[in-house]
Design a protein that fits this description.
Elements (H helix, E strand, L loop, with lengths): L2 E7 L2 H14 L1 E2 L9 E9 L4 H8 L3 E10 L2 E13 L2 E9 L1 H8 L13 H12 L2 E15 L4 E12 L13 E2 L6 E6 L5 H6 L7 E2 L3 H10 L1
Antiparallel strand pairs: 1-6, 1-10, 1-11, 2-7, 3-4, 3-7, 4-5, 5-6, 7-8, 8-9, 8-10
């Protein structure tokens, strides 16, 4: 199922005000092990012509992103993900992989798949074989997430977005990052078919604008210059 995904650039003040509001009525994500949230580190892939990046820059309505994601700098859980976007709606195909499979994909090799279009490993393998999919940039940030059952609503506050072109260091704890000078904070609101009115009102700030924010794009461009 495609989910709505709306993003908003935030100032420090916006972040603080909104998080205080949300925290007063919503529960934190049950997967969090720390009251401050958790860190997200993603290794993004692109092909020989950087078509994922170019499609994002051009605002192409139908596009995919390929990434491997870990949490809190731990390789205990490694997620292989293909995120497809259609206008403002997204669908994410995700599965856990092993360290050995991670190493293969980083080297440009294929891993075992189910031959199903719903299997992200299948989609990765096709892109590796036909388009030369390779690692391009590491994107990291801190996230605090809140959830609300009706509408399957998920609200996340992401801070300190940063990038590293040293893709070979993915999974290490001492990566050297370049912090984004601007746009390093973003609010994301995701839901299925609807979002309750009280949450829309709760998230209302007159000076906050919805944006086509892409961490991958911003971090690639930051590392390229």
């Amino acid at each position: 199922m495609y989910r709505v995904e709306n993003k908003y650039n935030c100032s420090n003040t916006d972040m603080y005000v909104l998080q205080q509001r949300v925290e007063s009525v919503l529960q934190p994500d049950s997967n969090e092990s720390h009251p401050e949230g958790y860190s997200v580190v993603s290794l993004y892939f692109d092909d020989l012509t950087d078509s994922c990046l170019q499609e994002t820059v051009d605002g192409v309505n139908l596009r995919d992103k390929y990434r491997i994601r870990i949490y809190n700098n731990s390789l205990d859980v490694i997620k292989l993900e293909v995120k497809s976007k259609k206008d403002s709606r997204i669908i994410k195909r995700s599965k856990s992989i092993t360290k050995e499979e991670l190493e293969k994909l980083v080297k440009g090799e294929c891993i075992a798949d189910s031959a199903s279009a719903e299997d992200p490993a299948t989609l990765f393998n096709i892109a590796v074989r036909t388009r030369g999919l390779r690692p391009k940039v590491i994107v990291a940030y801190e996230r605090k997430a809140y959830v609300f059952g009706p509408g399957n609503v998920r609200i996340t506050f992401d801070r300190n977005v940063r990038a590293s072109s040293r893709t070979e260091d993915f999974g290490k704890s001492n990566i050297s990052y370049d912090f984004l000078r601007e746009c390093d904070k973003v609010l994301e609101v995701k839901y299925d078919e609807f979002i309750p009115d009280f949450l829309v009102q709760l998230l209302e700030l007159g000076n906050m604008q919805q944006t086509a924010y892409s961490k991958y794009q911003l971090c690639r461009l930051a590392e390229d210059f």
